[in-house]
Amino acid sequence: MSRIVLTGLLLLALTGCSTATSGNPVGTDGSASVAPGSTSASSPSSASAADGKACRYATAAGQPAPDGRDVGKPAERAKDAPASVTLKTNLGAIGITLATDTAPCTTRSFLHLSSKKYYDDTPCHRLTSADSLKVLQCGDPTGQGTGGPGYTVPDENPGDLVPSGVAETVIYPRGTVAMANTGRQNSGGSQFFLVYADSKLPPTYAVFGKIDEAGLAVLDKVAAGGITPQGSEQDGAPTVPVKIQAASVS
Known about the structure:
Number of helices: 3
Order of helices and strands: EEHEEEHEEEEEEEEEHEEE
Strand order of the largest sheet: 6-17-4-5-14-11-12-8-7-16-15
Helix content: 10-25%
Number of strands: 17
Shape: globular
Strand content: 25-35%
CATH class: Mainly Beta
Largest sheet: 11 strands, antiparallel
Radius of gyration: 16 Å
CATH topology: Cyclophilin
Structural class: alpha+beta
CATH superfamily: Cyclophilin-like
């Protein structure tokens, strides 16, 4: 499962419903949780990707793409990547400007999945409202937080976020789009989270996009609707259902 763990933190194991009061987004294999202060070093492959070399997408053993959505893997090399993706949801459009320069492997995977319609007709399954974690998590066709695309994405940990004042955490600002992971190195997949208010997390979640103002209005609407708790009053399914109807690349 992919999740996010918050400061103070609460371990959000992604194996179905986890409990969390201050959570962090974690990954996609349904087995791990992230604790505050935990970090994973960037892999050589993500560092080399920034140098224009190939991104290595590893097969996720025992985690086939759900729902018959076998879309293969992204190309290891790509040029002239599109700059944006729009998530058309039942509540309105969420426009995302992609960080193709700072997170090339992550954006390449997101574009691949979007172009293959992997995200079409999928729910955003998790909403959090803890002081240190305010995000909407999407990208799992199963809607359970355990699904992935059948491969993993190399880490591209952010190095430019502002320290939060809490040990070993930084501020993921409102409007950020970042990759969820399991807390293990190179464990990102298809799940991602949309930050609707500044959140404090370890710098181990690749930042790969920024949400436009219309998209933030959609997130505010979801957050205002509240949470149907799943183990915690501050962590569960959004009471106002959110479905990605289509992801379009431009």
